[in-house]
Amino acid sequence: MVNDRAPYQRRVLDDELDELMSALPAVALEGPKGVGKTRTALERARTVHRLDDPGEFAVARADPSRLLEGPAPILIDEWQRLPQTWDLVRRAVDAGAEPGSFMLTGSAQPSVPPTHSGAGRIVTLRMRPLATSERGWEPTVSLASLLEGTQPPVRGATEVALADYTAEILTSGFPGLRSLSGRALRAQLRGYVERVVDRDIPDDAGVVIRNPAALRRWMAAYAAASSTTAALATISDAASAGGHRPSKKTIRSFRDALSRVWMLDEVPAWIPGNNRLSELGRAPKHQLADPALAAQLLGVQAASLLSGEGAGASIPRNGTLLGALFESLAALSLRIYATRSDARVGHLRTARGRQEIDLIVERADGRVVAVEVKLAQTVSGRDSRNLEWLRSRLGDQVLDRVVITTGRSAYRQADGVAVVPLALLGP
Q1: 3-state helix, strand, coil in the chain (%, to 5)
Q2: Distance separating alpha carbons of residues 174 and 194, to the nearest angstrom
Q3: What does the angle CA 147 – CA 344 – CA 83 come to, to the nearest 5 degrees?
């Protein structure tokens, strides 16, 4: 899904990548296939080694040291095909490689990891599918400004409506698929899922799946659990549909295999670094790499999503499948923006489920922006009550409170809560 000849579309990650390469000898881009890692790296590379090319791979395996030859920056594409590449670059860094010497791209974590983690030598960046601001919409509200804690003015208007968000969910954030629609798009997404199961997991991750059909069913059940904290046993029950339930060992192998090829992008539970909150749940919130993959696995299209149908496997959730996938799109975008601000994203749920906050963006100092995601044009007091609860418990540790909507205007309510249409949110 990489078109090296197409005009390059600059990504949010590019600024961080440029900054790191100006100061560090080696940077690795990791993420699922098709997100644009190679295309981004090719914008900077002067020497390219493609290890997914059989000829180049054969030469590199016979003489790995050749991978370090050529004008810098040197790109080693799909490095996980030859795991010793990682240690080779690490040793070159230890030997005094100049800043901007190496870029590595990887679409999987090898089953046999390198002998050294690369910590302190190779800095890794996670690349995800396109955020909403990278899809042609013009943001007016900056996450970076919200993280400053000054509660800046929130303004802007958009013509993006619910049907447009639905279309974006189904189109996907994979750059190579953006020009497709209808049957051609669905065929490509279906082929993507099939390749993950049949080729990427065994070839790139080195994991043998003995029952591919069971893995596909489990992926569909996992897709139905998008934006929930459903227990793995619940997902497995939905996948078995009354038949044979996979063993715990099989479930672990499924999760491990999908994680290795970056198909899972779970939002971790947010646990504050103090004791001001207690009895917090620790289960992650389930997300696939792109909500379009979840829609494809569940066989839903725009009409069924907009009608509130098409839930797929039976997974308990509050609200509709479209609401869950809208939250997936918001989480994907917010995580990209947060990385640019050196922040991380989690979710909050008390152990008994009485309070939940969809997304928590945390600065390095532990202060947060709390975010609720609502599939609605308007906001009521009920929509922000958990945000107010968190502020009452944590005080000025909460920098800002935000409700992301499908509405047309961005504004601040009288209580200070920022109401922001997803199309207007940017880095």
Answers
A1: 40, 15, 45
A2: 16
A3: 145
Q: In 51-153, at which residue ranges do the beta strands (DSSP E only) sit?
A: 74-77, 102-106, 122-126, 141-142
The answer to whether the beta carbons of residues 295 and 166 sit under 8 Å apart is no
Write down the residue that tokens 């922001």 correspond to. 420
pLDDT in tens, 374-397: 999 999 989 999 999 999 999 999
CA distance 327 to 50: 36
Would you give the end-to-end CA distance of the chain in angstroms?
25
Per-residue pLDDT tens digits for 221-252: 999 999 999 999 999 999 987 677 888 888 89
Cis geometry, peptide bond prior to residue 73 (ω within 30 degrees of 0): yes
| Contact call for residues 277 and 269 (beta carbons, < 8 A) | no
Distance, CA of 300 to CA of 295 (rounded, Å) = 5
CA 68 to centroid of chain Cα atoms: 31
Rg of the chain taking only CA atoms, in angstroms: 22
Select from 365, 372, 386 the least CA-distant residue to 422.
Answer: 372
225 within 8 A of 286, measured Cβ to Cβ: yes
**Amino acid at residue number 112:** V
Angle at 423 between CA 419 and CA 427, to 5 degrees: 85
Identity of the amino acid at 369:
V
> Cα–Cα distance between 133 and 144 in angstroms, integer?
14
The two three-digit tokens of residue 78, written as one number: 């799909």
Kind of pairing between the strands at 356-362 and 344-349: antiparallel
Assess whether pLDDT exceeds 80 at residue 183.
yes
Element (H, E) at 412: strand 411-412
Angle, helices 248-260/232-240, rounded to nearest 10 degrees: 100
- The count of C-alpha atoms lying within 13 angstroms of the C-alpha of 304, restricted to the half-sphere facing its C-beta, is 13
